[in-house]
Amino acid sequence: MSNDSTVVTVISKQPTKARSGKDACLVVINGVDLGKKYGLSQHSTLVGRSSKVDIQIDEESISRNHAVIENNGDDIIARDLNSTNGTYVNDRPINQHRLLDGDQIKIGRTIFKFLSGSNIEAAYHDEIYRLTTTDGLTQTFNKRHFLKEVEREMSRSLRHQRDLSLVMCDIDHFKSINDTYGHLAGDYVLKHVAQRILHNLRRDDVFARYGGEEFSLFLPEVDKQRAVVVADKLRRAIESEPFFFDNVSISITMSMGVTHLPEYIAAVGALPDDQPNVFAFIKIADDRLYQAKHTGRNRVVG
User: Fold this and answer.
1) Residue 29 near residue 131, CB atoms below 8 Å
2) Inter-residue contact 156 to 272 (CB < 8 Å)
3) 246: confidence class by pLDDT, cuts 50, 70, 90
4) Which of 210, 223, 253, 274 might form a disulfide with 216, Cβ 3.0–4.6 angstroms?
5) For position 73, what pLDDT does the model report?
6) How far apart are CA 296 and CA 277, in angstroms?
7) Which pTM value belongs to this model?
8) 241 part of the active site
9) Burial class (CB in 10 A: 0-12, 13-18, 19+), 77
10) 108 near 133, Cβ under 8 Å?
């Protein structure tokens, strides 16, 4: 019976496991290591450019020891370490911030999403699936998902002889924004241009980051005349108010090209049963975007 005391002793040591910290992780949603997961069970996780930190990000805009994530078992705190370019949580600069599930942490040009809760693995896999359709920086659809949706909508519109319009959009002089204010400001502009456009769209409209500073939009059951009106409304919304980054005012304009399904049919001779040529449809709008760029910018050509 003397073995009973040994059993009690083993059980009494189990609570020490809780000191490893709250179950949480960071997932890269924008950056070189897209989709990579970093556990945060240890007391502190150092982030920076140095090879000696726990999460190394090799970017010039990141300090050697940039930020630390502290796990005290009850809360997880993000703390900036007097970095040159700052640490941002949900687009706001922080010195210290208690993280909540779903918060986005921006360090340099890399964006992490903070995940915590009882089923961290399920949350991580949900996030990875979301990354297959969404652009991490702008939170709009990505090019791959956009092309898939355009093809599906073209098939439906051809079959049922319904209207469908397409708009290609590009930020004017975007390179000069990066050159003048830096890439962090450029990323900020991209994200907030996208958000301003999203706020002016219908639920059925599909908007995506097509690449770089170029965006794309398709408008189901909208004819060309109405599409040009929508595009011009978006253009005016972008130029109406400047964007502010680090107390600097940055004025933005956009150029846009518009087409609709009948022009695609005329160009390729499409029939309802034909396999849609998505790129041929996009090219018509892209050629008009090019025309808008070369006839003064900040305009819509349809």
Assistant:
1) yes
2) no
3) confident
4) 210
5) 86
6) 30
7) 0.85
8) no
9) middle
10) no
Residue 7 has pLDDT above 60, yes or no: no
205 against 273, higher pLDDT: 205
What's the full length of the chain, in residues? 302
For tokens 């900036």, name the residue: 80
What pLDDT does 66 receive? 98
Q: From CA 214, how far away is CA 254, in angstroms rounded? A: 10
Please state, in angstroms and rounded to a whole number, the distance separating the CA atoms of residues 282 and 274: 17
Write the burial class of residue 121 (CB in 10 Å: 0-12 exposed, 13-18 middle, 19+ buried). Answer: exposed
Catalytic residue among 213, 214, 241, 263: 213
The tens digit of pLDDT for each residue in 181-223 reads 999 999 999 999 999 999 999 999 999 999 999 999 999 999 9
- Residue among 298, 218, 294, 297 nearest 258 (CA): 218
